[in-house]
Each structure stands twice: as C-alpha cells, then as structure tokens.
Amino acid sequence: MATVKKDDRLTNSQSLMCVGFAGVFSKTVTSPLEVVKILGQVGTFHCKRGFMHTFLLLYQTEGLRAFWKGNSVSCLRLFPYSAIHLATYKKIVHFHMDDLGRISQWRAISAGGLAGISAALITYPLEVVETRLIAQNCRESTYRGLLHTLSMVHRNEGFLALYRGFSLTILGAVPFSIGCYVVYINLDKLWQEHHFRFSSLQNFINGCLAAGVAQSLSFPFETIKRKMQAQSPFLPHCGGVDVHFTGMINCFREVIRTKGMLSLWSGFTANTVKIVPYYGLLFSCFEMCKQVCLYQNGYIVSPLSYKLKPGVDQSLGPHELQEVKHYLRNRKEQAQSSSMRNRW
Questions:
Q1: What is the pLDDT of residues 237-248, one digit of tens each?
Q2: pLDDT tens digit sequence for 134-184
Q3: How far is CA 163 from its chain centroid?
Q4: 183 contacts 210 by C-beta, under 8 angstroms
Q5: Is the sign of the CA dihedral 129, 130, 132, 138 positive or negative?
C-alpha cells in the first residue's frame, strides 16, 4: 500500500503530527465513500439498487450527516493503529535483516502484514464500534458514541463481541500481502526502470495500484467481517445485515447461497473510487504539513517551496542542526563582544 516516506529532517513528534493530520483529513473527505462501502458490505436496505442509488437513499432517509457516521471513531483509531503498526513493523524488519541491513521485498511485505494484524488486535473494538455506528440509522440511533457503544456491546453481548470477526483480519492478510507482492515485483517491468529511480508520481501510482489489487483479493474476507461485526440480536433488524448466520463459515455459505458469489464484493465500487482521492489527499496533505515543519526547522527558505536554504547541511537531523546554529550564534556573539573590547 501507499505510505508516506519518513524524512530524517523531521522530529518524531512532527512526523506523527504530519501523518495524523494527513490521515484524519483524507479519511474525513472520503468518509461518504467509506460509509457507502460498509453499508454495501453489511447489506443494509440502502444498497439494493446499486452504488449511486445508495448515496441518494442514504441522504433521503438520514440526511447529510449520515455520510460522516463513525468518522470520529475511524479518525481516533488511526493514531494508535499507526503507532503500533510502525513500531511492530520496525521490530520485525530489523529481525529479518541480513548483516548488510537488507531485506527481501516479500519479507518486507509479510512484515507489513504481521504488523497490521498486531495493530488491528489492539484497535479492533474501535473498528466494531465504527461498523455499528455506520450500520444504524442516525435518526433512530441505538448507539450514541464511542463509549456508549463499547459499554452497550460489552454489557449485552459480552467482551468477545468486540472481537467478533477478528480471525478474518488474519485470513484476509494473506491475499492482501500476496496482492502487494505481485504488484511490487512487477513494478520494474511496468516502468522499465529500477525502483530507486521512481518519481513521487510513480510512487503514488504504485501505491494506488497495489492497494487496488490487494484489496480486491482480500475484500470477501472484509465483507464477511463487517457482517459479523454488525449482526446483533439486540439491534433492530439484527443490525441491518442481509443474511442471518451463526458463525464465519456459515456466513460465507449463506451469503453465497442467498446472494451469489459476487455479493462478497458488495461495496467494492465505492472502495475502488475511494482509493485515488484517499491516497492523493494523504500524500498531498502530508507533503504540505512536512513543508511547514521543514521551514520551521530551518531546512528550506519557504513553507510553500522545497527550495533548500543555502549553507544548511541537509544530512543533519533537526536536533543536530539546532546545535550547530546555537554554536554558530554563540561564536558570532563572542566575536562581536571581543571586537567591542578591543575598541575600548
């Protein structure tokens, strides 16, 4: 998948802020497509007549705010998920590196999959809450927010209900990683040049392509997972799911038997449409935020341009650069003080 590259000229807090702002902004802007995708996966009545009709019917029945149902929980989940994913990924990659610090593409992608599973394990209850908030009618809501949803699900259905469908996250990671690997091992042939020469636009296209292929392969697992997250005997219409089931295998069987094989990709149109604007906003917002931080750190001449500041060593870290500036400033002040004493 597309990821923003770490810049050693930023502090850890600045990098986290840039990634967080870019993630929240891109999720918020593309939230209507995410809502329609999840409604399609759950199988609510909105999705009986296709992608565009879902937008119209959702607006007519629940109003404009329905397109941002669950968005606050989704954005909140982004921070712990990203932090855990990054920390786990670094640990796994470091473990698999050879003596020269190299790692194969397949192992790197596998490490990403394992890191994703680890992050999902910690933040999975938030994903269940997001699905419940999106599946319900916001004008006749059962749940009133994050804490209320967590407490209601825990009280009525037990703690394990907050992890219902988690095994599908593990199963879905396999085709997802395979999809990423298939794309990345063919990038050199696609662009007819080595990967270290790819431009920013090429990397963006690569990320969107990898995400599209990987998500298409893992989408049936996510569809069943969303149905398992949404179904509850304590909710109207059992949470809005279009089939009733007793477990993961039974859910697969019932969906295929009653709706057909292609229904496992319900909501895929909205998901595909979302890929380009989501990653486009993610990249552009990150770069804008990074420029402001680089200007603040003293590496570039303007927050609106990547033009490097003359005389600044770009290989220095932000703390090292501040120490150099402090040293030069003190030396200049001492030289001026010495000059004044010589005059007297």
A1: 899 999 999 999
A2: 999 999 899 999 999 999 999 999 999 999 999 999 999 889 888 888 888
A3: 20
A4: yes
A5: positive
Cβ–Cβ < 8 Å for 184, 110: no
User: Which distant-in-sequence residues (6+ apart) come within 8 Å of 169 by Cβ?
Assistant: 117, 120, 124, 221, 225
Residue 56 neighbours by CB under 8 Å, 6+ apart: none
* pTM: predicted TM-score of the whole model, two decimal places: 0.87
Sequence-separated (6 or more) residues with CB below 8 Å from residue 22? 4, 281, 282, 283, 285, 286, 289
Q: What is the Cα–Cα distance from 209 to 215, expressed in whole angstroms? A: 10
Parse the chain into domains and list their residue ranges. Answer: 12-297, 314-344
8 Å CB contact between 152 and 143 = yes
Nearest Cα to 166, choosing from 115, 101, 121, 114? 121
**Half-sphere exposure of residue 16: CA atoms within 13 angstroms, side-chain side:** 13
- Integer Cα distance of 225 and 249 in angstroms: 11
Written out in words, the top-level CATH class of the domain with range 12-297 is mainly alpha
